[in-house]
Amino acid sequence: MEISEIGEAGLLQLVFPYCLPGTVGDDAAVLAFRGENLVVTTDVLVDRVHFSDQTTSAEDVGWRSAAANLSDLAAMGAMPLGITVGLGLPPNTQVQWVADLYRGLAACLERYGTGIVGGDVYRSTVRTVAITAFGRVESSAVIRRDAAMPGAAIVVTGDHGKSKAGLELLLDLNLGQDLNLLDRQELIRAHQRPVPRLDVVPLLNKLQPEFVAGMDSSDGLWDAIAQLCRASGVGARIDRSAISINPGLWGLTERPINWVLGGGEDFELVLCLPLPTAQALVTLIGGKAAIIGQTTATPEILLIDDGQELLLSSDSQFQHF
Amino acid sequence: MEISEIGEAGLLQLVFPYCLPGTVGDDAAVLAFRGENLVVTTDVLVDRVHFSDQTTSAEDVGWRSAAANLSDLAAMGAMPLGITVGLGLPPNTQVQWVADLYRGLAACLERYGTGIVGGDVYRSTVRTVAITAFGRVESSAVIRRDAAMPGAAIVVTGDHGKSKAGLELLLDLNLGQDLNLLDRQELIRAHQRPVPRLDVVPLLNKLQPEFVAGMDSSDGLWDAIAQLCRASGVGARIDRSAISINPGLWGLTERPINWVLGGGEDFELVLCLPLPTAQALVTLIGGKAAIIGQTTATPEILLIDDGQELLLSSDSQFQHF
């Protein structure tokens, strides 16, 4: 049987039993180390699967690779210690592409006070950027997916759907003719230079919520909500009107909400925590952050739109295979 | 310009300036963490570059991948905490291949009391196994390449050239007709199931040498000696007669010493330390370990063979591009 027949979910089911108990199933692994925790996450980008010369410069590939991994650390409540880079290159790769890639990696990492601490370069038939990021977090501050209690407020940072919109603009130059230049740049930048929400980690540490569950929205906002609910054994009621939709999206697609819920790669955080702490967190974050609903004891995930309850499948997720 | 024109050395020169100072150039990066050290190393294997279905079963690819990374930890004096696995797969990969790979990984890791703690599976055009291993080591016990003093004894563990011999036997079924079955199996096993020398780490901790420099011999015994000398600013006199040559090699090649010095992938340790501690270490290791020479204040690396001094180039190394 081929892996295309079992899909990504089947593949993960296959490999999980070979992993140490309690280490997989979250955005990153958490390992006890001298009374603190080491957090480790790996993410690999492959040419023509995760990036392409058409939409992403080498510098942007570097930035995005670093940002995606730092986002996984933020999703665990961890601050970064460093990353390693495994770089697979066909021999005819341009030297300039490699230099630009590292400049993008270093620029993103420097912004968050961390850097590259090692790696491996190797020959391959396809350009491949394999990053492992590690960070640290106190045991009491680890954010897991399975810790949501019923009745928790669901907080979402930032705008969703912007990365998808930016990608579509890059792929179709005829799209968004009515978009003003600043809005267009903002959307494209959201795709090329996503910002990991490490800024939220110290705010959470300050608030010390009674409980917190969370993950990042790299595979889409809806996927994050569904995964948090599944892992925690809860459901959710999401208020459609509380979800912000970037005005720029309206001119690009008839149903912006689909891009907001399913676009992916926005690298924002989705957190479940007690309502008072959630309200305090939204205030501390300032600007773009909102409570978009609450978790429920029943397992359904409902989208409340104009007073109508829509039952959404919790199985929707980005399929890598 | 293409990277094939600057080679692996040129590529490393290009990327090093983007790495945090003091973290690259050894078998692994060392990061201070709560008064101890976190050691991190990354190694990537690609189908048809580092392994092939012809010579390596999926289970062996798994074992070798894990062993190579654990060997890098041993070379830093560190004991393993865990590994992450980034696995790139074409959609038509057999499910059984993936299961066998993980079984091989887990078997090797279990032997050393560690395991897989996370990873990423992704679609690629070529099977790729990207491993990051992390371990821990007290600051006083870190083994770096640049710490060799002149007059140090050079200790080599195990037999070299066996992995190369095993590979040649797998590639050419007509080779080694006179070899008895046990010797043949030993050589093939050396290639398929290399053993990282984590057993040496606690012995070194027990001896607490005044200084120790070292690395593993994954790119060949001669390369390891040359790299240690370069990093430490010393030379070496190597006694050819002190280097063990596995008897099985004699029937396979006219010049076994070439395979011993240049074969690579034996994953043994090459260590420079004061003579008395070196002698004690060889005794503690028992069996296959030997002092094969000493470091010198002059930078040349000499191979002493039958009383003749051969000056060997220190530039010989495995070129990945």
Describe this structure in words.
Two copies of one chain form a homodimer. Chain A has 321 residues and is α+β, with helices and mostly antiparallel strands. Chain A folds into two domains: 3-140, PurM-like, N-terminal domain (60s Ribosomal Protein L30, Chain: A, 2-Layer Sandwich); 143-311, PurM-like C-terminal domain (Phosphoribosyl-aminoimidazole Synthetase, Chain A, domain 2), CATH 3.90.650. Chain A has nine helices and twelve strands. The first copy, chain A, has helices at 3-15, 58-75, 95-111, 162-171, 181-192, 200-207, 221-232, 256-262, 275-285, and strands at 29-33, 36-46, 79-89, 116-123, 128-137, 153-157, 213-216, 235-239, 269-273, 289-296, 301-305, 308-311. In chain A, the strands form two sheets. A seven-stranded mixed β-sheet of chain A has the order 7-9-6-10-8-11-12, sandwiched between helices. Chain A has a five-stranded mixed β-sheet with strand order 1-2-5-3-4, with helices on one face. In chain A, a hairpin with a 2-residue loop joins strand 1 and strand 2. The longest helix of chain A is centred in the first third of the chain and has 18 residues, at 58-75. In chain A, 55% of the residues are buried. Residues 316-321 of chain A have low confidence and may be disordered.
